Amino acid sequence: MIIAEKKNNRFDLVVDNVRKTSKEVDCSGASVFIIHDDEIVTEEYWGRHSKDANARPIQEDTQFHVASVRKCYIGFAVAYAINEGYIDSIDDLVTKYLPLNMVKISLLQGTTIRHLLTHTHGLKRMNGEVYREFSSGEHWAYRGIGIDILTQIVKDTTGQTVAEIIKAKALNPLHLMETGWYGKVNEKLVEVIRKPNDPNWITSEGTDGDKMNMYVSTRDLAKWGYFHLKQGYVNGEQIIASELINLATSLQSTSLLDTDLPQNGCLWFVKDLPARRTEIGELVPKRSFQILGYTGVTLLVIPSRNLVAVRAFNSFGSPEGFDYLADVRKFGDTIMTCLVK
C-alpha cells in the first residue's frame, strides 16, 4: 500500500500525549503514527525493544505485540465468512455452526453470531469450564470464550484459519509484510514488558490466528486502519468488498437496558450513543471505530475526519492506579483537539 507523506507538526500534542503515557506505563519503547487526508502526517518512534541497554531501537519495522487488537482481524475474518456466504447470517444461532463437543449445547441456546461479535453472548470460562453469566443479548462482558468460538466457526465454515484468510484477502494484496502471528521470536519483535507469572500472559507456537501471539508494526497497523477507512478501496483498486468492511465497522450491537455499556461492530468498538464504559473519547465523532489491546496498542479510525491514528507500547497491563480507559479516551480527544485548532 502506497500512501503519500507530508509530515507536519499539527499533531504534536498527540505525540506529547503518547510520550506521557509511555512514561506512566511499564514499557521500554513506543510509537505514534497518523494518516490524515490520505497522507502520513505523523510518524514517531522512541526507546528500545527491551530494557537492555544494547537492545534494538524502536523503528519503522519494529513489530509490537498487539494483544486484543488482533480481534479486529478476527472480526474481518468473520465478516468475510458472512459476506461470502459461509455463514448465512450474523443472526444465525451459534449451534448451527459450532462443533458439538466444544461447548454444551444447553449453554448456547439463543446465542447468535452477533452476540459473539458484540461481547453480549453471556458465556464465561473459568478453570476450564464454561458457564453462563447472563442471557445472551441482555448485558455486555469482555470474555475470551467468545473469540475462541468465533475462530473455530471461521475455520469450520470456510476451511481456512483466520490467519490464512487475513493473509490472502488483505496482507498480501496490501503488501503488509510486518503483520502476523508468530510461534517463535525474531529480532523485529519487541520484548513484552510484564510482571512475572502474569496470568493474562498467554504465548503459543500456533500461527492460525486464534491465539494471542500477534505482532504488527505501527505503520502496518495504521495501513490496516486506512484500508478500513477507505472501505477496502486503496491505490485505485477495490481489494475487498466494501460491504464486508461496512459490516465489520458499523454498529452491530443490539439495544441493551444499560445504555452505558460499550457498542461494537465485528469486535471493533464503535462510537454511537454516549456510554460511560466506552473506550472511545467523548470528543470523537459518531461512527468512528477503535480497538485497544492489553499492551496499550490502539488503532482509532475517524471516517468523518478522514483520519487513522495508532499508538503502540511494549507494556503489558497497567500499573496500579492507572486508569487505562481514561488514558485511551484522552488519546482520541487529543486528536480531535488538534483537528479543531
From TrEMBL:
E.C. number: 3.-.-.-
One Pfam family named in its UniProt record: Beta-lactamase
A GO molecular-function descriptor: hydrolase activity
Residue ranges occupied by any Beta-lactamase-related domain in the UniProt entry: 17-327
InterPro entries, alphabetized: Beta-lactam-related, Beta-lactam/transpept-like, Diverse_Enzym_Activities
Residue intervals passing through the bilayer: none
Enzyme class: hydrolase
Keywords, comma-separated and alphabetical: Hydrolase
Name of the protein in its database record: Serine hydrolase domain-containing protein
